[in-house]
User: Which sequence fits this backbone?
């Protein structure tokens, strides 16, 4: 079994958070945080495997993929509900469930492509900035000037 770098960093963050909460908060909070971290690690591992299956594996049919997703989501809901039923601290549980986000952001930052030192930069007043679409990360298509001159009526 291979462990993804995001999972490795997530485990480090979770262990650090549990240790810090044992020092500065109650044992119930630390246990709730650990349960939340375990639930989100289980959920993320399933999500990662599903994404690998969907994008790189052979897709046999969407029914099996959706069934596995529904099963994983149901188990997550049951786990959260059970933890709250047995008296878990809701704040600790939510923090534990959310620890994957900083791990994903940090690992995405580490995996970014290297900067090209020879790349040229546009002057801030350059009119080419007006053609840039930040939502699509590319230049916009040039407007059709003939269409603007025609009368729509």
Assistant:
């Amino acid at each position: 079994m291979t462990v993804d770098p995001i999972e490795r960093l997530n485990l480090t963050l979770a262990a650090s958070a549990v240790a810090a909460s044992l020092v500065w908060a109650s044992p119930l909070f630390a246990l709730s945080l650990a349960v939340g971290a375990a639930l989100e690690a289980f959920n993320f591992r399933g999500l990662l495997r599903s994404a690998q299956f969907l994008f790189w594996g052979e897709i046999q049919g969407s029914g099996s993929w959706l069934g596995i997703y529904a099963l994983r989501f149901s188990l997550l809901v049951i786990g959260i509900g059970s933890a709250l039923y047995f008296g878990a601290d809701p704040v600790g549980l939510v923090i534990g469930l959310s620890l994957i986000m900083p791990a994903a952001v940090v690992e995405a930052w580490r995996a970014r492509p290297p900067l090209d030192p020879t790349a040229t930069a546009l002057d801030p007043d350059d009119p080419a900035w007006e053609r840039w679409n930040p939502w699509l990360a590319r230049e916009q298509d040039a407007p059709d000037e003939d269409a603007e001159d025609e009368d729509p009526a």
